[in-house]
Design goal:
By secondary structure, the protein is an alpha+beta fold. About 40% of the residues lie in helices and about 25% in strands. Strands 1, 2, 3, 4, 5 and 6 form a six-stranded antiparallel sheet that branches.
Amino acid sequence: MPAMLVALGATLAFFAVQLRLIHDGKTHDRPGRTGDRLWQSGGALLLGLLTMTLFFTMARYASMADVSNAVAAAQDHYRKSQHVVVHSRVILQHHAQDIRYKDLDDRAGPYRYQYMGFRLIAKSPSRYYLVSKTADYKSTKVVVLPDDDTVRVELS
């Protein structure tokens, strides 16, 4: 918000100077002089710099807010994310803690192995990003699974 107020104030100041340079208080307008044009160019440059500062400041704020939200979610053990049960054709190699594993033999069809205790933190078009439901901020191991026919992901 402070950066936006600074940019708004600079914009108003620029247009006030521009109006003052164009109109001299009488009924007619005076032609632009070289000095007036330099003031206008300097003001326009200042506005451009303030606009870039505004966008840079807002981008930094959004980045810091995202990091803060991610840390808060991790410290809360990802309680607001969805529970995941993974059914797999092959044994999954991962380093996540407290994941329960079941071998369902041939009765489960092609998805023989079942993994419980994951939570979904993100989904891209081709991957699932999972963590253990007991993971915290300092010991989080992210498990990346492909979104293909080797695994079936059940969200609850």
